[in-house]
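Consider the tokenized backbone below.
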């Protein structure tokens, strides 16, 4: 299985693209999952708070905690 991200460049073309994709879904060729999440990177204060709340700091260095939490 392969995962792709599709960016539709024109809002006008969204319906056309979705029609093609819906046909492929109905044929059992693909599965569509809609992810509209756009993350914002935390600032240093937020990172420190996340590290403190994770309760990993006594056992790991700040960099190790960031790696564990993928930050």
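A designed sequence for it:
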């Amino acid at each position: 299985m392969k995962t792709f991200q599709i960016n539709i460049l024109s809002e006008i073309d969204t319906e056309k693209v979705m029609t093609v994709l819906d046909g492929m879904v109905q044929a059992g060729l693909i599965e569509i999952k809609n992810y509209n999440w756009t993350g914002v990177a935390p600032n240093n204060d937020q990172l420190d708070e996340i590290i403190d709340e994770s309760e990993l700091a006594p056992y790991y260095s700040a960099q190790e905690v960031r790696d564990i939490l993928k930050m």
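The CA atoms of residues 22 and 28 lie 10 Å apart.
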